[in-house]
Amino acid sequence: MSHFALSRRHLLKGTALAALSVPFSTFAMAEDGTRRLTVAADSEPKNLNPAIVASNGVFYIASKVIEPLAEASFTGADGLEPRLATAWEGSADGLSVTFKLRDGVTWHDGKPFSSADVAFSALEIWKKLQNLGRSVFANLETVDTPDALTAIFRFAKPTPFQLIRNALPVVTSVVPKHLYEGTDIATNPANVKLVGTGPFRLAEYKPGEYYRLTRNDAYWDKTAPKLDEIIYRVLPDRAAAGAALEAEEIQLAAFSAVPLSDLARISKVPGIKVISKGYEALTYQLVVEINHLRKELADLKVRQAIAHAIDRKFVVDTIFLGYATASTGPVPKNAPQFYTADVEAYDFDVAKANALLDEAGYPRGTDGKRFALKLLPAPYFNETRQFGAYLRQALAAIGIEAELVNNDSAAHQKAVYTEHAFDLAIAPPVFRGDPAISTTILVQSGTPAGVPFSNQGGYANAALDEIIKKASETVDEEARTELYKTFQQKVAEDLPLINVAEWGFITVARDTVENVASNPRWAVSNWADTALKS
Amino acid sequence: MGMMARLLRTRSGLIGACLLLVMALAALAAPVLFPGDPLAIAGPAFLPPLADTAFPLGTDSLGRDVLAGLFHGARASLAVGLAAALAALLVGLVVGTVAGFAGGWVDEVLMRITDAFQVIPRFLLALAFVSVLGGSMTTVVIAIALSSWTEPARLVRAEVLSIRERDYAAAARVIGMHPAEIAFREILPIALPPVLALSAIIVAAAIMIESALSFLGFGDPNIVTWGSMMAEGRNVLRSAPFLSVVPGIALLVTVLAVYLVSEGVNTALNNNQAVPRG
Amino acid sequence: MKRIAALLRRRLAGAVPVLFIVIAFAFLLLESAPGDAVDAYLVSVGGGDATLAASLRAQYGLDQSTLSRLWLYLAALTHFDLGWSVAFDRPVLSLIGERLPTTLVLMGSATLLSFGLGSFLGIVAASHPGSLRDRLLSMASLTLYAIPGFWLALLLLIVFAVDLRWLPFSGFETVASHKTGLARLADIARHLVLPVVTLSLIYLALYLRVMRAAMGEVWRQDFILFARARGLSARRILWRHVARNALLPLVTVLGLQSAAMLGGSIIIESVFAIPGFGRLAQEAVAGRDAPLLVGLILVSALFVLSINLVVDLLYAWLDPRVGSVEAR
How does strand A400-404 pair with strand A371-377? Predict the structure, then answer.
C-alpha cells in the first residue's frame, strides 16, 4: 500500500506542476506596434449595410466603413457637420434639397465617388428598401446630378427640410452604385463585405468571434484615421464586457455593455474611465405601451392612475442609477428643437392614483385587488426588464395585479406588435432626432399589425393623427415645431402611452483610448479621430 | 419504515436528510416568516448583509430583501424540482408500463420515441422549449420534465418486462383481468421502488436546470427562485458578490443533500454485502 | 466480427425512425413558437413595415404550411442537404461544420480530463473504502457536481483571467492574431484551459463515483478472490485486475454523458464566449431559425447515436459476453 500511496502523491504533484509551469502571457495586443483598438460587440447583424438597415446595431460597425452625407455634431450649425456632403440647402417650397458633395473622395476599391452614387443610393435603396428612408423619402421623385459633385433631390410633395436635415446622419449612408446597379440589392454580397468611403475598411469577419477593420490610407481627411485597426470582439454575454475590460482583453465597451450597477465599482479600477457623453443624439425612451382595446385601459382615469403610480425618481435613481432623466412627454429633453416642458405632469402620488381608480369604477375587491393585467417588458435591455419588475410592484400598490410575461425578442415582437396579446408593454424606442421618424409612430393610428415598434395598442385619436400628418407636410420650420409641441401636450393629456424616462448609454474605456464621445452619435459615428495613447 | 431507518443509519443519508429537512422547513415557513411578495421593493438598493437588522442578508439591485428571497426561493426551487420530477415520473411510468406490457409495435414505437428524446442533449431540449414558449413556471416545469422522463421510462419498462412473466401476473391474466388493470394495479407497484430512488436525482437535476435557464434569462419573472436570484446577482458579481453567493450556497446545499440521500439509499441497500479491505 | 456487423446493422436501422421523430419534434416545437424568423429579424434591424415582412416571409418559405416545409426538408435531407440558415444567410451544413469542431475539441478534452482524473481518483477512493481519504474525495466531488456550471465558470474566470491574469479571458483563440501551426495550437490550448477545467470539474464526480462503485463490485468477484488467494500484492490486484475490470461500466457512462456534455457546453460557451455548437444553438433559437435549429438537433442526435454505437462496439470488444445479448 505504501508504494501505491507514494506513486499517487508523485503523480498528483506531477500534474499540478504541469498545469502551473506552462508560461501564460497575459493579454495579446498586436506585437508589431499596430495601433489596434479592440472593442466589445454584442450582436452580429446579418445585413451590415447601413443604407438598408439604419439601426444602431449596424451603425456601430458599419459607420466606420460607410459614411452618411452629414454627421451629428456638438458645435456645427443645426447640430450637423459635413461628411460626404459639404453643404445642403432646402428650397422654400419644400420640393427640393440641394447637396454639394465632397471632392476627392474614392471608394475602398479605388473608384471615384460622385453624385451618381448618391442618386442611386437615394432612389434605389433609401427610398425603396431602408427601414426609415421609406417614410422620409416617400415622396422623393428624382435626384438630378448636374455635375459630379451636386445632387438635387426633387420631391413630388412638399417634404420638410427640417426633417431631412435631422435625419441626415441616420438615413443617408451612401453605397457605391457600381457594385449595386443591376443586381438584387437585398442579397448583394456587398451587404456583408462592405465597400464604402469611410476611414476604415472591413477586412475580415469571423462569425461568432470578431470583425476586423483596417485603416483606409486613402481616406479623404488626410489627418485621419488615427488607428490602424479596430477589432470588434463578439461577447454575447452581457456581463462579460466589464471583466474583459479589466482583463485588458478589450479597451472599450459602448452602449452600456458594462451593466450600470457595475459602473460605480469599475470606475474606481485604475486605468478605466466611465464616459456618459456621446449619446446625446441617441436618446432611448422608456415607454409604457398601453393596449386600449382592454376595457379598463381605455378609460383615461385608469391611465392617469398608472401614470401617477410610477415613481420616476425611483426609476432614474435605482434602475438607471442616475444615468437617465425623468420624462415629461413623448419628446426627450435632449431634442431642444422640439421639446416643451409645458405639458400635463403626473407626479408620484399613490393616493391620487387610488382615488382615480375608485372614481373610474374599479374598486378594490376583498383581496385588495381591482383587476389583473398582463405586463410584457421588452427583453432587449436589462433596464426594461428591471422596470418591468418595478412596475409590477408599483401597480400592486394601487390594487392592480400585473403578471409579467418573459418573452424573447421574437416572441415579444409577435405578442405586442402582431397579436396585441398584451395589456401593458414596456418599450425602449429610440429618438432619432425628429419626431416624424421616432415618437409619432407609437401614437399614430392605422399602422397594420406586424410592424415592430409601432402603435399596436388600438389607440386612435383623429386630432392627433391630423397633427402628425400635417407636421409631415409642413415646410415652415417654426410652424412644424409648433405642431410637435401641440403633439406633446395632447399626448401627455390623453396618455396613449406613458413616458417614464429617457436615457443615453454609457461608454467604459481604458484610459489609453482618446477622443471618445467627440460627437453626439459617437458610438455609431466613424471614429476617424479616435486614437490610442502610446 | 425499515428502509427509512436504514437510510438514517448511514452517515451520508443522515446528513442529507437533515439538510433536506431544513430546506423543506424553510420552504414551508417562508409565507409565515416573510408574508407578502418577496419581490416587493422593501428598502434601499444594494444594502450589504449585516448592515441593517431589518435586512440581515442585505437587499438586491431594486431593494428587495435577500433573506425573504432565499426563503421563498427555497419554496419555488423545491416546487419546480418536485413538480418537474413528478411530471417526468408520471410520463415515464405510463410510457414504460405501456411499452413493457403491451410489447410488439406499441413497444417499438414508444421506445423509438424514448430514444429520440434521449439523444437530444437535455439542456438543449429544455432551452429550445422554454425560449420558444416563454419563461413561465409551467413551461419551465414542462421543459425539465420533457428532458427527464426517458430514464424512468426505460427503468420501468425493464422492471415490467422482468415481472410480466412471473406467476402472479400470469395468474391475473388467467382470472381475466384487463391487461391495463394488470399493468397498472399489479405490476406497477412492484416496479416502482427502483424508480423512486431515481426521482431524487431528477429533483436535483431539475433544480439545476431551472437555475441554468434563469441564468440565460428564461425564468419566470413573477416568482423568485434561487436561480433567478443568482441570475440577477451575476451582473454585480464583483461589487455585490453576496447577491449570487447566498442563493448559490442554498442551491448547492440542497442539491448536495439530495445526492447524499441517494447515496445513503444505495449504501443502505448494499449494507448486508461485505465490503473488502484493501 | 459477424456479431459486430449485426450490431451495426441493427443500430443503423433503428436510428432512422429515431432521427425522423427528432426532426418532426423540432419542427413542431418551432411551429408552436410565438414569433418567427421574420419577427426576430425585424426586431434585430429595429423595425420595418408590413410589405417588407410579407416579402421576407415569402422569401424564407414561411408562407407555406408546416407539413410542406417538413416534407421539403426531408426531401432535401436525402441529398445530405440540411437547408439554408435564415438568421445567418448561409447553408446550415457549413455553419455547423464550422462550429462543431470547436465544441468537439472542448468536449473531448473535458471528457478526457474528467474521465482520466475521475477514474484515477475513483480508484484511489476505492482502495480504502470508508477511509477519510475516500470520504473527502467523495464529498469534494459531489460538491463540485452540485455547483451550477455557470457559477463555477464565472468564479474561475474572475479569479484566473481577471484577477490573476494567468489565463486568457474568453474565446477560442486570440482574436485576429493570425497565428499558425504550433503557435496557434498553443494559443487555443491556453484559451481552453478554463472552460475545459470547468466542465471537467463538474463531470469529475460522475466518473469518480462510478469507478469507485464498480471497483467495489469487482472486489467481490471470484477471480479477485482467486488472485488474492494466489498471493498477488494488493497493489497489483488493484491496478491489474480490479481497475481494469471496473472500466467497463465507466465506458457506458462515457456514452451516456456525451449528450449531457453537449448540452452543458451551451452554458460554458456562453460564459467563455466560445463560438461553438452551444452558442449556435442559442442563436438559432433566438433567431427562430428553424432549419438551423433542426439541423443542430439532428447533428447532435447523430453525434450521440454514434458515440453510443462506439461505446457498444467497445463494450463488445472488451467483454465478449455482450453483443449476443441485446439489452435494449
Answer: parallel
